[in-house]
From TrEMBL:
Its EC number is 1.1.1.22. It comes from Paenarthrobacter aurescens (strain TC1). NAD(+) binds at residues 30, 35, 86, 122, 156, 267, 333. This is UDP-glucose 6-dehydrogenase. Substrate binds at residues 153-156, 208, 253-257, 261, 326. GO terms for biological process: polysaccharide biosynthetic process; UDP-glucuronate biosynthetic process. Residues 319-420 form the UDP-glucose/GDP-mannose dehydrogenase C-terminal domain. Residues 440-459 are annotated as: Disordered.
Length: 459
């Protein structure tokens, strides 16, 4: 069985390399010749732990190749996975389906033998049925081309392990024959006991967006409570630990902080609302708008806190530690950290950024900041430090260690990874998101009634 993968972004390259690792012959396609040239040399154009090694290994073995030619893909492959992007449409919440549609039409026109097209991208419900019509109208006569939907649940930073050993496999199919093909593709995972859920197209599409909506809701839920603990003086981490011990709730994805970002959760909850509205079901998904608002408010909170701790942001020198949307990634798409850096700059701060992997991508989007290659360079002249992405090297920071590199004793912990009491006992002013603080009343900023600043040991 020969496998092709259309689109060589995160999802596509990971899937292609993992399929090669499972022993399949794989051909990846991208319309970008520069990307194809780079991948053909075994060079990964983004940061993903474990993937560069897998890519190099299978490019070298000849089991994994890349092309820009749909003709080649259509004549060669038996199973074609579509992993192109479905970004948010400019100025709207809805997903831009033009890449998925274009890939499907190009495939259908070029497939010369009986094949199965398997969608993996995150799409609005109803897409597979719509694509079926596109395939029927564009395929060559006498060739049978079936469709299936098999959503991908991989997390950045864990893409390889999530692909090779997923929590579950979901396939939306119309025939037992198509299910049998996918069972062959995933034979190793199935033998290892990974559950397979076989269902219709619509359910398969919805499982993916429902999972992401649930995760976003969980994060916004704890962040809504963090607004309350900030106001009344509680500790959001202890609250999350306590409710998380209830196995029905679970502790994961209850980390309060500056909120969720990245290429998936924000766009997926907006696309889901847009699709629900198209279906006349806007009320069903309206709560997601509130989740989005809570999430964005956390970014404002970090800026308000910075303003309060400095008196004024104008002409202040601010060090940002961590600019990616999460650790172990170089991705800054919809990154809360980069958004906060930009807001601080817009209010007159001079911003210096250090991130172990995200500087290059961040500097392309926000060239107005200074980007430095060490934490020491970022903090040395700072008036205030904001820790915004929980990379391992920041988790091990100590008050003494940081104090040796900077003159300031003011820090905001945007991810709740520092022990507030330890830092405060060492003479630091620690502004935290959702944690206990001592009562210094805030005098400015849109959320002043909720904002209080930790200064010195708390009671
Ligand atoms: C997500 C889903 O987890 C994955 O299943 C799906 O396939 C794609 O979208 P990803 O975007 O890689 O994966 O990141 P994830 O680990 O889910 O984190 C998303 C965002 O939520 C990050 O900005 C992270 O910092 C934030 N987050 C996560 C929190 O703020 N608190 C938490 O407790 C967990």
């Amino acid at each position: 069985m020969r496998i092709t993968v259309i689109g060589t972004g995160y999802l596509g390259v990971t899937h292609a390399a993992c399929m090669a690792e499972l022993g399949f012959e794989v051909l990846g396609l991208d319309i970008d010749p520069v990307r194809v040239a780079s991948l053909s040399e075994g060079l990964l154009p983004f940061h993903e732990p474990g993937l560069p090694e897998l890519l190099r290994k299978h490019v070298k073995s000849g089991r994994l190749r890349f092309t820009t030619s749909y003709q080649e893909v259509g004549a060669w492959g038996d199973v074609h996975f579509i992993g192109v992007g479905t970004p948010q449409r400019a100025g709207e919440g809805a997903a831009d389906m033009s890449f998925v549609d274009a890939a499907t039409i190009s495939l259908a026109r070029n497939i010369t033998k009986d094949s199965l097209i398997v969608g993996k991208s995150t799409v609005p419900v109803g897409t597979t049925r719509r694509l079926k019509t596109l395939v029927r109208d564009n395929k060559r006569p006498g060739v049978s081309v079936n469709l299936a939907w098999n959503p991908e649940f991989l997390r950045e930073g864990f893409a390889v392990v999530d692909t090779l050993t997923p929590d579950r496999l979901v396939v939306g199919v119309e025939s037992p024959e198509d299910e049998a093909i996918l069972r062959k593709v995933y034979a190793k995972a199935l033998a290892d006991g990974v559950p397979l859920i076989t269902t219709d197209f619509e359910t398969a599409e919805l499982v993916k967006v429902a999972a992401n909506a649930f995760l976003a809701t969980k994060i916004s839920f704890i962040n809504a409570f963090s607004e309350v603990t900030e106001a009344v003086g509680g500790d959001i981490r202890t609250l999350a630990d306590a409710i998380g011990l209830d196995v029905r709730i679970g502790r994961r994805f209850l980390n309060a902080g500056i909120g969720f970002g990245g290429g998936c959760l924000p766009k997926d909850i907006r696309a889901l609302q847009a699709r629900a509205a198209e279906l006349g079901l806007d009320r069903s998904m309206r709560f997601l708008d509130e989740m989005d608002q809570i999430n964005l408010r956390r970014r404002e909170r970090a800026v308000d806190l910075a303003r309060v701790m400095l008196g004024s942001l104008s002409q202040s020198r601010i060090a940002i530690l961590g600019v990616t949307f999460k650790p172990n990634s170089d991705d800054v798409r919809d990154s809360p950290a980069l958004d906060i850096a930009n807001k601080l700059f817009d209010e007159g701060a001079e911003v210096t950024v250090y991130d172990p992997a995200g500087n290059v991508n961040a500097s392309r989007r926000s060239p107005q900041h200074h980007y430095v290659t060490s934490m020491g360079d970022a903090v040395k002249n700072a008036d205030l430090i904001l820790l915004l992405t929980e990379w391992d090297e920041f988790k091990t920071l100590t008050p003494e260690g940081l104090a040796a590199q900077t003159g300031t004793r003011k820090i905001i912990d945007g991810r709740n990874i520092l022990e507030a009491r330890v830092w405060e006992d060492s003479g630091w002013s620690l502004g935290s998101i959702g944690r206990r603080y001592s009562a210094t009343q805030v005098t400015e900023g849109p959320h002043r009634e909720q904002l209080q600043l930790s200064s010195g040991p708390s009671a």
